Amino acid sequence: MSEESRVPFETQPASLETAPAPLDGRPPREFSLFWRTFILLAVLLLGCIIAWLQTFRALEFEPRALQSAQQLASLVNLTRAALVHSDSIARVSLVKTLADEEGVRIAPREPTDTYRLYNTDSLSRRVSERLSARLGADTLVAREVNSTPGLWIGFTIEEDPYWLLTDPSRIGLVTGTTWLIWLATAAVLSLAGAALIAGLINRPLKKLSFAASRLREGDFQASHLSEAVATSEIREVNIGFNRMAQRLSKIEQDRALMLAGISHDLRTPLSRLRLETEMSVTDLQAREHMAADIDQVNAIIDKFLDYARPDHLTPERINLNQVIDSAVYALGNDPTTQVLTNIPPDTMVMGDAVELQRVFANLLENAQRYGRNPKTGTATVEIAAKAKDDSILVKLRDHGSGVSPEMLEQLTQPFFRGDASRQSATGTGLGLAIVERAIARMGGRFALANSSTGGLAAHIKLRRATQ
């Protein structure tokens, strides 16, 4: 590779295309089980409160208001009868007794009196109608007379108009403020109960979700769930999950042991074959071919071991520039291959340095082998990166022929090889599968797409390292 290919190019490569759907395939709106359960319970409880209020109004408010109207009408009739049949001296004493003992005040009604009718709501209008029906059509019911609030009832005694002032609480209705306080208290308690119930339902599911995520990452110890919970259904689910995790852990251990044994058992005779080849074969060309075959078998074994590596790893801060520079340097000085990079300085990601270098080494090797320009026979690889929210998007593209759209999804499947790679028996069909698996272990996403300007583009989404 020429020196100028190691220097960031002046002309920026094709802009980092929008990552394909697998990288940003999020649901349009996330709605957790807790909030769904809470909202459903809250709607149910609030609906019950409203239904209870309407029932109470129908069975209690109006009957009590009518009963209060009848009592007020009786008070007016008794007061009128007492005043009519008492002499002037007793009448003064009666009026004073009513004011002191019953809180009822009698006052003459003047033509200049100003008043506001008692008709603020349906119940007050109903009370006024009942009083008019009992006392006569000329009866007035007011909530304020001459700027003095109260329950004022206008009636006549022998053609003389009077006002009877009494306490509005005689109607026996709860005020609006009191109802508001009680309704708010009931609503708050209902919502608190709904949140508690939703939390109790959601808590074991969150634990199961966390355990499943740890199991997916290969952390079998952190995926253990409690088998002593009180709920029988949750306990059975936890027991089944723990047994599954134990079985998968045993399978993973057996797989690692088997692969280590295969690697050891194959590398030992290969080393002997290489030594015997170097010592016994006199034909230089034949010896070189035999050594290349042995190296290829060793490389295939390495590919299998790379693919079978454990899923769990501890991510750390990595300088993406250094990792890509190391992978480019390891590609060698092939004059027909040019690598152009456009990465912001000191781009930091979370992952494993060895794994990430292996990722870019496989991608560069794949681009060098299958991404050559059909006309010139050279391989030009462009690597660009940019930050987006809490992620780093990396795009590595070649200028080859690309692949057919129906083959894109199969390229990351183990042992699958495209048309170009089938013609060459040097590959195992594991390169891109190793890349996808390694990026997934680091918490990233990987996808392939045909570039709009030609060639195959690999899109990588890595977690951005925080300061």
Automatic annotation (TrEMBL):
InterPro entries: 2C_sensor_his_kinase, HAMP_dom, HATPase_C_sf, HATPase_dom, His_kinase_dom, HisK_dim/P_dom, HisK_dim/P_sf, RisS_PPD. It is found in: Cell inner membrane. Gene3D superfamilies: 1.10.287.130, Histidine kinase-like ATPase, C-terminal domain, Sensor histidine kinase RisS, periplasmic domain. Its main location: membrane. GO terms for molecular function: protein histidine kinase activity. It catalyses: ATP + protein L-histidine = ADP + protein N-phospho-L-histidine. It is a multi-pass membrane protein. Keywords: ATP-binding, Cell inner membrane, Cell membrane, Kinase, Membrane, Nucleotide-binding, Phosphoprotein, Transferase, Transmembrane, Transmembrane helix, Two-component regulatory system. Residues 199-253 form the HAMP domain. Residues 1-23 are annotated as: Disordered. It is an enzyme of class 2 (transferase). The chain crosses the membrane at residues 33-53, 179-201. Its EC number is 2.7.13.3. The keyword Transmembrane helix applies. The keyword Glycoprotein does not apply. This is histidine kinase. It comes from Hydrogenophaga palleronii.
